[in-house]
């Protein structure tokens, strides 16, 4: 009798342990996707003009973030659903890039081409270690090309053309061993020596410089 009760207690404990683990996993997943959602809502708040009301009509707490326009999610670490791609290209948006986007930990592709984003690219974006593709071409971004881009070790394609970046190209970009193509044309860049050094480095690694 005592043995049977002991076995029942053990089985009950194991079942409760599994349920607790499942609840924790669900809560963690919801917290992470909620972080992504909050980050994107911060971007929505930083947009001052949305001509087609794409974000205004689509990005809200009443709809699941993975169904938002321009947002693509995927299963990542421990089968958790996270935002992997953000495509805001050709939406005619006016605004700034908020630091909150640095919380999109599993973002792989980030395109905001042909909009009117202005200001600088915040340092917090350096935390996006999974990024392979960045396209901010044809905006109104200013300041120096961020040196932290050199920290994005998986970055393969970088498009920053047709903005108002100034100063020299940071040598840290030469650390991007996965880089395949880069376009920095039509900016206000200077520093011939660094530009030549960068081009030479890219040439050695079969990287296309546009």
Automatic annotation (TrEMBL):
<keyword id="KW-0677">Repeat</keyword>
<dbReference type="Pfam" id="PF00560">
    <property type="entry name" value="LRR_1"/>
</dbReference>
<dbReference type="Pfam" id="PF08263">
    <property type="entry name" value="LRRNT_2"/>
</dbReference>
<feature type="signal peptide">
    <location>
        <begin position="1"/>
        <end position="21"/>
    </location>
</feature>
<keyword id="KW-0433">Leucine-rich repeat</keyword>
<keyword id="KW-0732">Signal</keyword>
<feature type="domain" description="Leucine-rich repeat-containing N-terminal plant-type">
    <location>
        <begin position="35"/>
        <end position="73"/>
    </location>
</feature>
<dbReference type="InterPro" id="IPR013210">
    <property type="entry name" value="LRR_N_plant-typ"/>
</dbReference>
<protein>
    <submittedName>
        <fullName>LRR domain containing protein</fullName>
    </submittedName>
</protein>
<dbReference type="InterPro" id="IPR032675">
    <property type="entry name" value="LRR_dom_sf"/>
</dbReference>
<dbReference type="InterPro" id="IPR053211">
    <property type="entry name" value="DNA_repair-toleration"/>
</dbReference>
<dbReference type="InterPro" id="IPR001611">
    <property type="entry name" value="Leu-rich_rpt"/>
</dbReference>
């Amino acid at each position: 009798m005592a043995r049977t009760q002991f076995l029942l207690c053990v089985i009950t404990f194991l079942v409760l342990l599994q349920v607790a683990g499942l609840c924790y996993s669900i809560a963690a997943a919801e917290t992470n996707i909620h972080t992504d959602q909050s980050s994107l809502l911060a971007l929505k708040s930083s947009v001052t003009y949305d001509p087609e009301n794409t974000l205004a009509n689509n990005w809200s707490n009443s709809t699941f973030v993975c169904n938002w326009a321009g947002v693509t999610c995927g299963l990542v670490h421990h089968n958790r659903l996270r935002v992997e791609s953000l495509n805001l290209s050709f939406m005619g948006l006016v605004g700034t890039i908020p630091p909150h986007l640095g919380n999109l930990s599993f973002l792989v592709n980030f395109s905001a081409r042909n909009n009117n984003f202005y200001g600088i690219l915040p340092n917090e974006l350096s935390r996006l270690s999974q990024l392979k593709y960045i396209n901010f071409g044809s905006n109104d971004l200013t300041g120096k090309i961020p040196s932290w881009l050199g920290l994005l070790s998986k970055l393969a394609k970088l498009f920053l053309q047709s903005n108002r970046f100034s100063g020299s190209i940071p040598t840290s970009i030469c650390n991007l061993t996965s880089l395949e193509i880069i376009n920095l044309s039509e900016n206000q860049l200077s520093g011939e020596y660094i530009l030549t050094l960068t081009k030479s480095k890219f040439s050695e690694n079969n990287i296309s410089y546009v």
